[in-house]
Each structure stands twice: as structure tokens, then as C-alpha cells.
Request: fold
Amino acid sequence: LPVTVTGHQPPCLYRWNTRQIALWDQEDLSMPLIEEEIDGLSGLLFPFYDADTHMLYLAGKGDGNIRYYEIGSEKPYLSYLMEFRSPAPQKGLGVMPKHGLDVSACEVFRFYKLVTLKGLIEAISMIVPRRSEKYQEDIYPMTPGTEPALTPDEWLSRVNRDPILMSLKEGYKKTSKMAFKAPVKEKRSVVVNGIDLLENVPPRTENELLRMFFRQQDEIRRLKDELSQKDVRIRQLQLELNNLRNSPKNN
Reply:
């Protein structure tokens, strides 16, 4: 099994202090499998390794980013993938145990970031971009569970035993696809000259558009004629009313 070590390279002549990460073989500690410089910052590096996915998350104190690496048994052993970036620097990080992750959302890791400036704790989820219609067994293998493998007396007696594994499949909840049905409204209609004014159906062809245009033009002309006739009738009634008021009988 590989051993990950983080630390600083001591400054030499004409060289700045650098942060480094190294990967070692437990069976041969004479020299590292790989050694890589990260940057020239001074904050301590916090390594978080996920044995289920062989992912290494590297975060620095005072940094705002978290780097992702994949650890393999063959060269190049350590492969950089990408990084999470945030403008808020972190003072420290905690992690959620595997049995507390959201398996239905393909969440494989969750950080609890202590934000330096605000005094807040921010949850950061690492989610694999997959369709979560079924349980993803390749990213959720058997993992150490909540049941202890040793009693306190056994631990004090230096008994060594592998952890009791558990499956996360029980925590998977299939997302339900509920079809939305719009409420059925009572259809109302207002028909004017053979045209339903409440039915707003757009024309599908150019001929339908022309027919609708000419129908609207005819309707506008008809309404203008009716309005003119009513104006004439109003003036007639006003004249008749004035004549009645000025007639000798009313005097």
C-alpha cells in the first residue's frame, strides 16, 4: 500500500521554500515512488485519502482550493485530475464518514471547511457526474462501517483486526420521476364575427397568417362603421333633444 507524505522542501541557495508531496511504498522506504512540487506557499498541506475510489484530496491551510489526485499501482502512480477553487481561505477541514454521504446523488466525499474570515463552516461535496438512476457499485464498494472491530480491551492488548465492512446500498434512494399534470381549466370562448378572441392559436402557415390578417382588417372596418353610425345617431338624438327644449310648448 502506498504512503502519502506532504511537507516543505528546505530552502537552498537561490531557491525558495516549496511545498511538496511524495508517495512511498510501505515495503521499501529507501526512496519515494514519486515526488512532486506543489507551489511556493507556506501553509501546511492537509492530505485526505479515499481508499474506496483511490482519490487523494490535497488542501492547504490558508488556501482556497482543493486539489484532486488519483493514486495508482503503476507509473506515474500519482495523477493530477483537477481542483476545486474558492475565494474564501480555509483554516481547517473535516470530512463526513462514508455512511453519511448522499449515495443517490453520487456523492463520494464531503468536506466541512472552516472559513477563516467569516468564522463559518461550509460543506463542500465531491459528486461524480453520473446519472443516479441505479446504485453505482464501482464508486461505492464495501467500506468500513459503524460497528467496531475491536473492543477497548482488545485494542489495549494490541490486537490487530481488519475493520468490519458495510454496503452503502441501503442508503440509496431511487429518484422518482413524477409527471407534472397541469390542472384542467374550463374552456371559455368569446366569439366575435366568427372569431374566438380567447383562443390564441398562432398561425402555422403563411396562408393562415394572411387569412387571419384580412379577417382582422375586415373586423376593424366593421367596428369603425358601427362606431361612425353610432356617432351619427348620437348627434341626431342631441339635435332632437335641443329641439324639444327650444319648442314653444316647453316655454
Observations:
- Helices lie at 152-156, 206-246.
- The chain has two helices and 14 strands.
- Confidence is low (pLDDT under 50) at residues 10-15.
